User: Fold this.
Amino acid sequence: MSEMTDITAPTPAVGDGGPDMVQLLTPEGQRVANAAAADYAHYVEDLTDEDMRGLYRDLVLIRRVDTEATALQRQGELGIWASLLGQEAAQVGSGRAMKKQDYAFPTYREHGVAWCRGVDPLNLLGLFRGVNHGGWDPNEKNFHLYTIVIGAQTLHATGYAMGIQRDGAVGTGDQDRDAAVIAYFGDGATSQGDVSESFVFAAVNNAPIVFFCQNNQWAISEPNDRQTRIPLYQRARGFGFPGVRVDGNDVLAVYAVTKHALEEARSGQGPFLVEAWTYRMGSHTTSDDPTKYRVSAPLLPGYGRSEGEEGLRDMLDVTLHALDVMEKLKLKKPIIVGHSMGGMIAAEMAAIAHTEIGKLCLLAPAGLWLDDHPIADIFAKLPYELPPLLFHDAEAGRRILTAGGGDMGDIEFLKQFLVMNARRLGMAGKLLFPIPDRGLAGRLYRITAKTLIVWGKKDLLIPPVYGDAFKKAISKSKVVRIAKAGHAVGQEKPARNKNGIPRAADTSCTVSGSLNRPASTKPASRSHWLSTIMCKSSCIGPFSMVVVLPLNCPHLTPSM
Assistant:
């Protein structure tokens, strides 16, 4: 039973690849070695400083090529371009793990792998300009021509791998002769029959092939949970060969895992699936507009690595800043979602620019004051007092606030915690201290957007009675109360879809920006679309969240 539970474990949210994800570098570039990396870390021990600089050079140059190609397409010089923005580490790490005799079968986005195999970027530009069919010799580079048909290259790659096997170039022990094949594809391609067929042929023939899936979370506009019920790397188990998930933004981890997988294939151990957990930062291609289906969550000034908070003096400044961001994103009548202080900002946006907002969703918003129901002074609370204040389940809240580690009773940890939150609390203090009343009550009547107000029944920070006050002041509104949930309603009840609350896949609520998130948080794969945003935050600051959704986001139910 435990085995089945493991297999059907929910797909983690974007930014959280789960405990099984191999990682050697943090997002900040610090070397780590999680438990999943134990079998792979030794592959990078022999890399020299020059090797490291070479990987960095590859990453920088291929991003530069990608930027120039995108600009050329916008100028009309290329017919189309498939950007690799965000996937550089997955491609460079795997490309540099190959030996000269290995053969790669790309899709149409593997510009980084092409670079590693010695393909001149001008040939790629010529292909997308329509003046050549690729322009490189596949046999010279051991890099096949780009494949446009989704998933078709996995069959070609499997057949080629079976050919290598029959030529006797597998498992001989000759390091200069034994070869393997690597087939690249995206998460969307896993829904194609060709990919499943290639898995079957590769498995039963023990073909020397590495299936390299770049899971960038989106099959054009379709998120992961529209494609799979389990993490993609676990699919390999059903076909009888191993699969591993690696941090696709960690070039060292990708290099190590791919090197291991290729060695296994060359030695005759058969196929191997690598899922590189990454993110497509840009559009699917230059003909795609991701603002039509993805969520934008700009980082509030004063949080994370953002700048400019000194120029925002009060709530009006913050609200106008948020509206400026919305305009910059070119979103027309979007859905605005805000939690806590973010809910206050969202309500102000909808009140000031009431003709520009499509719909509004407020999760336990701040901004009102009822003398009979005072709001707790969160600025006076010590860290260990926060979990029971913010969560119905205080122990689960403690794990979330500390990102799964740390003892709130430890003096040193408390010091670090307080220092980490000082800047964010300072920004929040401008807007909420000493009481969170900045006149919003007198402006709520201006909100004309349909509004959904969500409150945890056990909210000890802002009592649920405030939900009625918001509903009374906003004409087109309704209140939904969630049982056994506190102020952090999105984190505590990620899977609730009650009374018409919109729902979407975890990955359809991707947060743009460098929001902190706890590595231990694993919301259900069919989670409440608001909770996905909440589950990417840690500590107290990011509870102040405003997100912007396109009004025609296909993953929202129409009942809102």
Summary: Residues 290-549 form a domain with the Rossmann fold fold (CATH 3.40.50.1820). Residues 51 and 57 are 10 Å apart (CA to CA).
